[in-house]
């Protein structure tokens, strides 16, 4: 398997000496689902922002799809984001004055899709996320779970190499969180979507292929998870009668 | 409580130093513009009154060969409160190749009780051979401080209300330290300035047998005011616009910011502020900024004002008024602060009424998600995505879009008004008939008709005379044209030009004053004999409020003495050269009305451009503030745009496209509005001629507005756009 | 297994095989395979304690089929079980004992112990989640899995606490 993302010694210090990231080395393979967990303030969002070029490292390298991107200009990063990355945030960050359809089509249109193609893709995506009927609604009128699904659709419209998600279920009640996770799981399990997801929810992290536990700006521990199978079922069901 | 207010206000102002500074700059600019405007206005209200006060102008001047005893008698007449006497003689001098009449007077003392010339340039003469020259005379004859001519050396220029501006009033005035002459001029100030006729009668009774000539201050005033009417209108328009500008700037900048603060207001209410408390807090906050900025603005205004006041004083023939008078300054301060308080309170009240929960939710998401009409249009036009986003973005908030459009529209109106003034001048220059001067040249020598007719370039010539006739309601000013009047066609918007003796045209003022219509008959007394005239048309008449009657001299029972010769040149001839030739042949001055208007335009241009520039600058600050606010408010959206792959240039594009969309509306609204406002002001300020002489800028001139607005929006969008493009996405989205 | 059988009998008399089927039907896939002998042993103990009675039903050529029913004492015993709150499941924890003792004895790195335990819990959580996807509308199973998952999540959080306080 080819690594899609590789970082070496990725470091980010803020003014005032806060070391949010202290030399992170991670490698994410194509089709892999990596979860990043850790206590609040340990640098998870910082890592994700660096991977998406929303923030610049103080030191270290980032490779995306085999090429160095850490030195890219703002404009080149923008192209990388629109063509190769999809972002999902904790608070959805939909544009309130654009309709759901417009929000989803926006990155597609920016990336040069024809209006027709963008419309078709948006239709399929919303349909597959179960919110096809909300295309003309305003995002402000939707529930949190619906908004996050719109945000995921927006992140996926350009069929990104990697989906970056920062606490996508953090602002949701458990039922909505379940719906959103189901959408992400499907994207990964059925379409092989590479995902890097930050979460503090163990249940969400448990869906990943690999869990990176961060402490104080570094990866403290890494867990590989195996798919559960039928034989493990009875082992788990310890119902004693 | 007070501590809480103070802390909150300070924290709020310091939290956004950029916005605070911009608000201050906007108020500063507004205050500056206001001071300049009020100073200009003060000079405008009654320029002549100012000048009278400044120079202690005589209400009545008596000329004659007077003994000291005569002078004492005059000074002792009832109603005289002050008097001054000086020697005077008429002389001639060759200046710039022509001989001009000069009135040479003894220089009054600096503390003379009556008629102190006000030195505007250079100094008072101290030694024999040094001269002080009246300013309009110096300008007309090209004299400068330091020049020498037959009478002496010019050491200073001065303005006076002894007489109106040269060459309308001649001879030109020159003062010397000592003048040896039998003639004297006694200037008196009267208890009742209106009692000039009574004084003249008393003077004649007191000095029977002495030849006396009088100058009534009313005559001086009428000439000056008539002559400067157009300029006064232009200044008036611009001052009106400046008042708009001030209200507007303060309104947009502050309202915009307060509206953007709705979230904070929600928080304040959440912690227990009453809506009244919120309003008090915000008003106090902005008044504090306003006070500082306005005071600085007053200083700047007082410093800038003379730059505009001086050319205005030249135009109005008055001494340069001071911009430092306390009353206008105080008025400016009060106006600005009142505007600040008002335009803070209104949006704050509105914001205070917003449901707290909604207000708190504002930061996160807003808008309806429904495409505005403009956005739908943009979509239908198949504009590129960035442009569509820009358009959509620009119209997201109605109040914001309205503020920006208003700021831009204001600038377009300013520009259109300035262009209209230019166009009006252009029109009048092209067609002097609009000044009731339908001739190419006027020679102030009635006996020179034959000489003028002999000139090779002259196509037609006749004589013109001015006379007072008695109408049904008293004296009327009348002009009569000699034979051959058919070649001199006045501008007659209603009816037609007179074609034969017994027909007449008149200005709107006369029709209005006498309640007549075109087609009516009017009988006037000329030297005691009735003359009945048929009014066949209304002509454009700038003088005497349009109360002027014009008819062929042949309508009169006996001929009148002509005042001047008027002539038209054959097309294509060199008018200036022909005028010089005629001057040479007749020994009299040949006046080209076109030149006169040109001169007036040259006078008005610095004021027009200066004040327009000031207005545009205020508008620009205004626009910048609005756009910056908008961008700040939209920081989150821009961050999201960038997160989904919009490049920094794309962000700039979005901001610019939005600005351009608003600019397009501003052009569409502003051009007709500007034309309308100009027309309205012209008509309002000068009903007799306003509508008839208005020039409309040509399509090319109006098209100038497009690049202007685009340049202005691009300029104003540049800073906020760059800010938006540069702000770190991570930081903005983190602030959630 | 005493109380589940008493509870099943509260619905009416039944014989041993029926009881086994009823258990399997109620709990479905969550129940490990039950052998019939276990049921019969329990039933005879209950009979011995006077909590159930039985009637033999003659079957041709085969041993009598015994139909069990609840006695008055059995009904009272069942009432007590239903009425009492079930004690909290988790007051003993092998891992905790291991962690404290290994740390005291210096025979293992506590951080490593915790990390390994976390791996195990995460893996378990993952498998639970995968199983949850295959319950196909089996509400009992889904609820049981949910309960187990919540416990695991709590365990993981508790591991974080252990790490903070005992991790070094
Ligand atoms: N813009 C910033 N300026 C200064 N410190 C920051 C900034 N952003 C994040 N930090 C600090 O960096 C550390 C990591 O933050 P973050 O990556 O957001 O943590 P989390 O894991 O909760 O997402 C924290 O200590 C935080 O306070
Ligand atoms: Mg975070």
Automatic annotation (TrEMBL), chain A:
Q: Which residues form the ABC transporter domain?
A: 5-241
One cellular component (GO) term of this entry? plasma membrane
Please name the GO terms that the record assigns under molecular function.
Answer: ATP binding; ATP hydrolysis activity; transmembrane transporter activity
The keyword ATP-binding appears for this protein: yes
Question: Which keywords are on file for this protein?
Answer: ATP-binding, Nucleotide-binding, Transport
Alphabetized SMART domains for the sequence: AAA (SM00382)
Q: Which PROSITE patterns match?
A: ABC_TRANSPORTER_1, ABC_TRANSPORTER_2
- Give the protein name, as stated in the record: ABC transporter ATP-binding protein
Organism (species): Solirubrobacter phytolaccae
UniProtKB/TrEMBL annotation, chain B:
Q: Does the keyword DNA repair apply?
A: no
GO CC entries: plasma membrane
Residues spanning the membrane: 21-40, 233-259, 279-309, 329-349, 401-421, 607-630, 651-678, 698-719
Q: Where in the cell is it found?
A: Cell membrane
What's a Gene Ontology MF term here?
A: transmembrane transporter activity
Q: Where is the ABC3 transporter permease C-terminal domain positioned along the sequence?
A: 240-355, 612-728
Could you list this entry's UniProt keywords, alphabetically sorted: Cell membrane, Membrane, Transmembrane, Transmembrane helix
Q: Which InterPro entries has this protein been placed in?
A: ABC3_permease_C, Macrolide_Exporter_MacB
Topology versus the membrane: Multi-pass membrane protein
- Entry annotated with the keyword Plastid: no
Q: Which family does it belong to?
A: Belongs to the ABC-4 integral membrane protein family.
* Entries under PANTHER family matching the protein: ABC TRANSPORTER PERMEASE YTRF (PTHR30572:SF4), MEMBRANE COMPONENT OF TRANSPORTER-RELATED (PTHR30572)
User: What protein does this entry describe?
Assistant: FtsX-like permease family protein
| Lineage, broadest ranks | Bacteria, Bacillati, Actinomycetota, Thermoleophilia, Solirubrobacterales
TrEMBL record, chain C:
Gene3D superfamilies, A to Z: Winged helix-like DNA-binding domain superfamily/Winged helix DNA-binding domain
Residues that span the membrane, as ranges:
none
Look up the domain of life of the source.
Answer: Bacteria
The record, for InterPro entries, names: Tscrpt_reg_PadR_C (IPR018309), Tscrpt_reg_PadR_N (IPR005149), WH-like_DNA-bd_sf (IPR036388), WH_DNA-bd_sf (IPR036390)
Q: Where is the Transcription regulator PadR C-terminal domain?
A: 91-166
Stretches assigned to the Transcription regulator PadR N-terminal domain: 5-78
Spell out the PANTHER family in the cross-references: NEGATIVE TRANSCRIPTION REGULATOR PADR (PTHR43252:SF6), TRANSCRIPTIONAL REGULATOR YQJI (PTHR43252)
Name used for this protein in its record: PadR family transcriptional regulator
